[in-house]
Specification:
With 223 residues, the protein is α+β, with helices and mostly antiparallel strands. It has 2 domains: 119 residues, SH3 type barrels; 81 residues, Ribosomal Protein S8, Chain: A, domain 1 (2-Layer Sandwich), CATH 3.30.1370.110. 45% of the residues lie in helices and 20% in strands. The strands form 2 sheets. A 5-stranded antiparallel β-sheet has the order 4-3-2-1-5. A 4-stranded mixed β-sheet has the order 6-7-9-8, covered by helices on one side. The longest helix is centred in the first third of the chain and has 29 residues. About 8% of the residues have low confidence.
Amino acid sequence: MQKAKEEAKQIVREAKDNAELIIDEIRDISQNIDKDSSRRLQQAQEMLKKEVDKRDREASGGLISVKSNKPPKDLKPGETVELLSLNQKGTVITAPDEKGNVEVQVGIMKVNVELSSLRRTDLKEKDINIAKTKSLSSRKSKVVKQEIDLRGLNIEEGILETDKYLDDAYISGLKEVYIIHGKGTGALREGITPFLKNHKHIKSIRAGKYGEGGEGVTVVELK
């Protein structure tokens, strides 16, 4: 029994170390995006997803104890949770789907996980007061704007920045935002339009009207 516990602890330690290495790699790549870095970013994302899947399978098979974890109820976007299989904290991006899976942001990486592999972060009263103070300060210093300016970016950069922005806008409760891509050759607009049409947070998109920027702006209605 003791040997099994030690093996489980070792698996958890290895999972945490592997996840941290991959997340550090993703952060490093994201600071200097080019075609080669974009490929490395995709590979790192796939590695982290495989790591999550692997640890989830081991947890469900009894190799990793999750202390008879009960799936958190009424989990909402913006809440902080702990990924038990990776011993990492993240932020909930989407509400649970019909299969009981949610999307969680870990650093700049997003992964789909089962509710049973998550646990709400427990905060003591002192921590809650500190969190409230930081939250108020954060709201004053960083307010999600109703627009994002992509002019000067290539298509890959534009999609990456827009994806992060839409997550922030959705969590902040914005219902309509403006994607400024400019007119120019129209390449940037044409490049990100398919991405916008298939984005999980978006209800509809349209070209800007007179006074909104016309063809140089895409107006997005969020769910």
